[in-house]
Design brief:
Radius of gyration: 25 Å
Order of helices and strands: HHEEEEHHEEEHEHHEEHEEEEEHEEEE
Strand content: 15-25%
Largest sheet: 6 strands, mixed
Low-confidence stretches: none
Shape: globular
């Protein structure tokens, strides 16, 4: 491990200044799991610790107050994993850097900047992409899957990491949503989930689905009939697939939750370095079936733990943080190479999962059949 070969153009202060002026793509995960630091690399989530108010008892004067139990359905504990990726500038890349640096004027300045900061951007984006993937896996199905497809360079788990969505919170469709617009009953299914939620003392305000499920929802004949009183287009009421605004107006008017479309893609790199764009809302088998009902966007926290390299920094390494993500830069010899690494120890904690409900839109018998 040696000092960065880009040190003439790159140091801690320069990277910090770059981060200050750099706008990265909007992230969705902090809306649902805002960052929360912890001094430990383990976690314990008390599921069911938040819920409806429990009424006190009426007792006689001079009597002791009745003891009530704490609201804990179960516990989920484990280790906060490390999320890491590394980028390498080869001898060819470094020769290109030296050539462009020698002509550091005009359009060459942008090319030089891309070479210097491109790997840094890739590492920041890469760590954030894994957080997005984990959060949307959890939100869509209540589990996180780490397999050779979505975590080719890291840990492969034998079983899904289960956040313990209660069986009573799992619902199925009256008719599979892929059955066709003439027969599907998405409004009936939403009302059924809301009835189940009411029996559990839960009041969902939001329905999360990806764009595929939204497309199936909006073309259903039942949906068209439901939104007809609200579908005003150019001053004329027309029976047509509604916009999200029209659909949500109709849902709200009937006391139902509004729809939030989760519309994002994440690139996955396999062991052979082939890239695939995936929808993080689908399950590990590629099945697109789940719809999630939430009372509030904020479900829990993205717990972030200490990073050993940050607390024990090698003297040759440039270290800078972008939010909680540690960026490290160094070089090596034989062969000559420049490395950039992004690292974060993080995992979502979801103590309110017992207040979420899930609809399996592609089964009429068993949730996640």
């Amino acid at each position: 491990m040696e000092y960065s070969l880009l040190k003439d153009n790159l140091n801690k202060k320069a990277i910090q200044a770059y981060f200050t002026g750099r706008d990265y793509d909007k992230l969705f995960y902090p809306t649902f799991f805002p960052l929360k630091s912890t001094p430990y690399l383990s976690f314990e989530t008390l599921i069911g610790s938040k819920g409806n108010r429990v009424a006190a008892d009426i007792v006689a004067y001079d009597a002791s107050a009745p003891l009530k139990t704490r609201k804990t359905v179960s516990k989920l504990s484990g280790e906060i994993p490390s999320i890491r990726m590394k980028k390498k500038m080869t001898e060819v890349d470094l020769n290109t850097y030296n050539i462009i640096k020698a002509m550091e004027t005009g359009p060459n300045e942008a090319a030089l900047r891309d070479l210097i900061f491109g790997d840094i951007d890739a590492c920041v984006d890469g760590v954030n992409a894994k957080l997005e993937l984990m959060v949307f896996q959890a939100l869509s199905k209540g589990v996180i899957t780490l397999n050779k497809v979505n975590n080719a360079g890291g840990v492969i788990t034998e079983k899904d990491i289960d956040f313990q969505l209660p069986a009573a919170n799992k619902n199925v469709a009256s008719i599979n949503w892929t059955a066709g617009h003439a027969t599907t009953k998405p409004i009936t299914d939403i009302e059924a989930v809301m009835a189940a939620a009411g029996a559990l003392g839960i009041k969902p305000q939001y329905i999360l689905m990806n764009r595929t499920k939204w497309s199936e929802f909006r073309i259903s004949d039942e949906t068209l009939d439901f939104v007809a009183p609200y579908a005003l287009y150019g001053g004329t009421r027309k029976k047509r697939s509604p916009s999200l605004t029209v659909a949500n107006e109709a849902l709200q008017s009937e006391g139902l939750p509004i729809i939030v479309i989760i519309d994002t893609r994440i690139d996955i790199e396999d062991a052979e370095h082939a890239m695939t764009s995936v929808d993080p809302w689908v399950d590990s088998a590629g099945a697109d079936r789940f719809i999630t009902f939430l009372e509030t966007f904020e479900c829990g926290n993205m717990l972030t733990g200490p990073i050993a390299e940050e607390t024990n920094p090698p003297k040759q390494v440039i270290q800078v943080k972008k939010g909680p993500i540690l960026i490290s830069k160094w070089s090596d010899v034989d062969p000559v190479a420049e490395y950039t690494k992004g690292e974060l120890n993080a995992f979502p904690s979801w103590p309110t999962i017992d207040r979420a409900l899930s609809l399996d839109s592609e089964s009429t018998t068993t949730w996640n059949a």
